[in-house]
Design goal:
CATH superfamily: Flavodoxin domain
Strand content: 15-25%
Order of helices and strands: EHEHHEHEHEEH
CATH class: Alpha Beta
CATH architecture: 3-Layer(aba) Sandwich
Shape: globular
CATH topology: Rossmann fold
Structural class: alpha/beta
Number of strands: 6
Number of helices: 6
Distance between the termini: 14 Å
Number of domains: 1
Oligomer: single chain
Low-confidence stretches: none
Radius of gyration: 16 Å
Length: about 190
């Protein structure tokens, strides 16, 4: 099955990019096709709430968001990661989330991400550095897309994967990433059986 990982960090090779890639590597190792997108340096215009997408099924802005939307339509599983910025997701990630309204343009239309599996990861400077609220931001977005949400699974079963400081050196954080990936693989297998 296809799994997309999105890094919402403005740093292309920072901790969040490493964390998302680490989770994708675990999934690739179990046979899943994976794809990685970093929002760093992407030209994504903010949503202006014009609702053109509700009639056209396309956004009025022709920018780098098209690559993200194509990848989101391609995937069956989605892992979204963000560093903690004042207890929340980054501005880049929030702008991307807002532009995903095109995937659910009206209350009558079928929501394109409906039933797909989504998971969240957050990277912060301290163990209790806002990761939980950042995970909740991401999960709210996934819920708004009518996705099935997973967490980092047994034996932690928190809201998602969390990393502290330098991702490569955070042994516990890497375990939560690996658990998130394993839980994603299990959820995708169950989805395939349905």
């Amino acid at each position: 099955m296809n799994v997309l990982g999105i890094s919402g960090s403005p740093r292309p090779d920072g901790n969040t990019a490493f964390a998302v890639r680490h989770a994708l590597a675990v999934l690739a190792g179990s046979g899943h096709a994976t794809r990685f997108i970093s929002l760093a340096g992407k030209d994504i215009h903010p949503c202006i709430g014009c609702w053109q997408c509700s009639s056209d099924r396309a956004c009025r802005y022709d920018d780098d968001m098209n690559e993200v939307l194509e990848a989101m339509r391609w995937c069956e599983g989605l892992i979204v990661g963000s560093p903690v910025y004042f207890g929340l997701v980054t501005g880049q990630l929030k702008t991307m989330m807002d532009r995903c309204v095109v995937l659910r343009p009206s209350y009558e239309a079928v929501m394109e991400m409906s039933g797909k599996v989504g998971g969240a990861l957050a990277c912060g400077g301290f163990r209790n550095g806002g990761q939980e609220t950042t995970l909740q931001n991401i999960q709210t977005f996934l819920l708004q897309q009518n996705m099935r949400i997973i967490n980092d699974g047994p034996g932690f079963s928190h809201s998602g994967a969390t990393v502290v400081g330098e991702a490569r050196g955070d042994e516990l954080g890497l375990r939560t990433l690996e658990n998130l990936a394993a839980n994603m693989a299990n959820a995708l297998a169950r989805r395939h059986e349905d």
